[in-house]
Write a structure and sequence with these properties.
This protein has 15 helices and 14 strands. The chain has 381 residues and is of the alpha+beta class.
Length: 381
């Protein structure tokens, strides 16, 4: 089949404007398809994280935005006394925007040693010491640092918060690479936050034997007599509830991705039909020279496949490049979804391109292979 490759390429180049328009249309559609897939993957990472599924978040009841949740810090001691709780981490959250945004910045104030234990952050040597020794020090996620062009040793200001960047980290969970970690007591004293003795939420790490749902109910019951009512959920469930509106939007975008696939199928099929109609007599001549109908079928499918794969790979690679270098993230109410390139996206884009190329070329190829040679020679162009 490869010996006919020059013939296939020559036929496409003969109508290069049409071929290039089809390739570019396929590229745009696959670009959108991969970007939608990245959003879905980012949301899936939040909801399927096994560690988040065994970690509980205690939040003020009937509160959503971090600025409205105010829990007494001494709740941590009462929760820590419950059997099955390994560690309770008080966290102060500050965000520049509680509404949905593509440039959300979230500060997490945590005790330094607790931060090192419960977050899997990859830092350059010396960064932890610099963080511990400076009151207004901050560790910044690599994606946020790239997006905001932050540099080590330089100040960074959002709203009422000004910190010194002492380290840039990579995180095991992609969404955390858009976060800023600073000291709990520093963030508590920032104007506009809850204040000393009050935190936004408590993060509860459970023993392996503990049942998360039972522990959540037990924690809420233990704090029922406190000054502030609480709602305790698994961290994954908490993030999903915060992003409930976004989940609906992502579900709609899922159908947008399928619509892009349909668009590519229609576009490539139309181009292939036009190419076959232009070469009816040419295919008849090939058959008179000894080419079997099956070989004509494969030649037409090859043209469709080449156009679709060229456009699909171009769109997929462009999407992966934008996701890799753009540092895009979507946040709402202090929870961030990171859009990242992945092997799954690359393989998905390639698979869709191949499948659509085969489907789009099948019917025109059958028409070319089954055409009556005498009629085609007489009526073809």
């Amino acid at each position: 089949m490869f010996r006919f490759a020059p013939y296939v390429v020559k036929n496409l180049w003969r109508h290069r404007t049409r071929s290039l328009l089809t390739v570019s249309g396929s590229a745009v559609a696959l670009f959108v398809f991969c970007c939608v897939g990245a959003v879905r993957e980012g949301l899936g990472r939040l909801t399927r994280d096994s560690e988040a599924d065994r970690t509980l978040v205690v939040f003020q009841e009937n509160r959503f935005c971090p600025s409205s949740s105010r829990l007494p810090r001494d709740y941590a001691g009462r929760i820590g006394a419950i059997d099955g709780v390994e560690e309770v981490v008080p966290i102060q959250v500050y965000t520049n925007n509680c509404r949905a945004s593509l440039d959300v910045v979230v500060f997490y104030g945590m005790p330094a040693e607790a931060l090192r234990r419960v977050r899997r952050l990859e830092l350059a040597p010396g960064a932890w010491d610099a963080f511990r020794n400076r009151h207004d020090a901050a560790l910044v996620g690599r994606n946020l640092a790239a997006r905001r062009k932050l540099e080590l040793g330089k100040p960074f200001t959002i709203g009422e918060v000004t910190v010194q960047v002492v380290g840039v980290f990579d995180a095991a969970v992609p969404g955390e690479s858009d976060a800023v970690y600073t000291h709990l007591d520093f963030l508590q004293r920032t104007r506009g936050t809850s204040g000393v003795g009050v935190v936004t939420q408590l993060e509860v790490h459970l023993a392996d034997r503990a049942d998360p749902d039972r522990m959540a109910a037990e924690i809420d019951e233990a704090l029922r007599s406190g000054a502030v009512a609480t709602t305790t959920r698994r961290k994954s469930a908490f993030q999903t509830s915060v992003l409930a509106d976004v989940v609906d939007l992502v579900s709609f975008a899922h159908w947008l991705g399928y619509a892009c696939v349909g668009l590519v199928l229609s576009l490539v099929a139309t181009t292939t039909v036009m190419a076959v109609e232009d070469r009816v007599r040419q295919h008849a001549v090939l058959q008179t020279l000894g080419l079997r109908p099956g070989r004509v079928f494969r030649l037409v499918v090859s043209e469709s496949l080449l156009v679709c794969v060229a456009g699909g790979l171009a769109g997929t690679l462009a999407a992966l490049a934008v996701l890799a270098w753009g540092g895009l993230a979507f946040g709402a109410e202090g929870v961030t979804i990171a859009f990242r390139p992945s092997l799954g996206l690359a393989l998905g884009g390639a698979a869709v391109s191949l499948a659509v190329g085969l489907l789009a070329g099948t019917i025109p190829a059958l028409h070319a292979a089954r055409a009556d040679v005498v009629t085609a020679m007489r009526d073809g162009r």
